[in-house]
Amino acid sequence: MCKICYKEVDISYGHHRCPASRCLYVAHVRCATDEAIWDGTIMLEGYDERSEEVVHEPWNLITDVVEQIIIRELMVASEIKHSYHDHNLRLTFSGKTKDDDSQCDGCTRPLSTPFSSCEQCKFFLHKVCAELPKQPPHPFHKHLLTLSNSHDEDNYSSCSACFRSYQGFGYGCYKGGCRFRIDIQCMLLSDILKHPSHEHSLFLVHNNKGTSCSACFRKLRSRDVAYRCMKRCDFSLDVGCATLSLTAWYKYDRHPLTLTYLDHYELSQLYCDLCEKKREPNRWFYYCVDCDNSLHLNCALGDLPYMKLGNKIEDIGHRHRLTVVKNIWNCPPCKVCRELCNGQALECKEFGCSFTIHWACCRSSYFWDSIW
């Protein structure tokens, strides 16, 4: 099977295969030389890319292991130094932080064990995020990607795979004029995905022109990567839907809400319990079966799920820097749409300034027209 288009390869004809022993990776000639897959580089016969590695440099951003412990006969680094933080980070396997809204500074997702933390400041890293490789290949992009914690001058980046704005760590391509960037959650995806919304395995496809996402119904462009079923199911998932959290929390529900794919309610009962607006039939939503609470995806996750609370955003048309906040009880009105900023929003913390705005509103043309 071709690992790019997932169709049969007739090996009696020319094809590409991996020279490594026991590796069964093969591809059609046309698939392997597609411009979305191949950057035009030709390797000489007998080339071994492992010989190009600098063996004296660490493969990740852990610069020193200060202390180790033995767990089930395995040696584990319990205290480390990391390139992106000035203080030592100590590993935690159980328990919670003092702040329930704590987020990993690498992937900006809610904190879960095991994670490393700084005892002097609020800096957290999931163990997986602390050990991310510096420069790995990835099936989403044809060039090697480099790990970085830098962003645009506005202090955030946009993921080229899921199109969400994010802070924290990310991977970027720095070859020529390539502007490809990807957040950590998308980076952890592989070329084959098993998702609970579909019975068959889904395969990464680079050319998706003429198809639509089966979750959000967004029409995919030819340059969009997406996951598709190869068993004639006509099922596709764009990367944004493929990386949705399987659970979410609602302030009036003591149970976690579950990502739900089918709606059995009548059309007259399709409402979101948070914003009290209608839900579209057949669109994914979050649901609690115990309390019968249903929420839109954005209402459950927020408009800025991959921004870290307390971080600043630069230059979006306001004279001061704005802070990422999460409003739960005291929800001020948005400067643009006048609706309450319930949940994640951007707020000015300067004394005497009461400017608050939804993320979607600050990116709208109406907002920019109004400030000019």
From TrEMBL:
<keyword id="KW-0677">Repeat</keyword>
<feature type="domain" description="DC1">
    <location>
        <begin position="139"/>
        <end position="187"/>
    </location>
</feature>
<dbReference type="InterPro" id="IPR053192">
    <property type="entry name" value="Vacuole_Formation_Reg"/>
</dbReference>
<dbReference type="InterPro" id="IPR046349">
    <property type="entry name" value="C1-like_sf"/>
</dbReference>
<feature type="domain" description="DC1">
    <location>
        <begin position="196"/>
        <end position="242"/>
    </location>
</feature>
<dbReference type="Pfam" id="PF03107">
    <property type="entry name" value="C1_2"/>
</dbReference>
<feature type="domain" description="DC1">
    <location>
        <begin position="84"/>
        <end position="130"/>
    </location>
</feature>
<protein>
    <recommendedName>
        <fullName>DC1 domain-containing protein</fullName>
    </recommendedName>
</protein>
<dbReference type="InterPro" id="IPR004146">
    <property type="entry name" value="DC1"/>
</dbReference>
<feature type="domain" description="DC1">
    <location>
        <begin position="252"/>
        <end position="300"/>
    </location>
</feature>
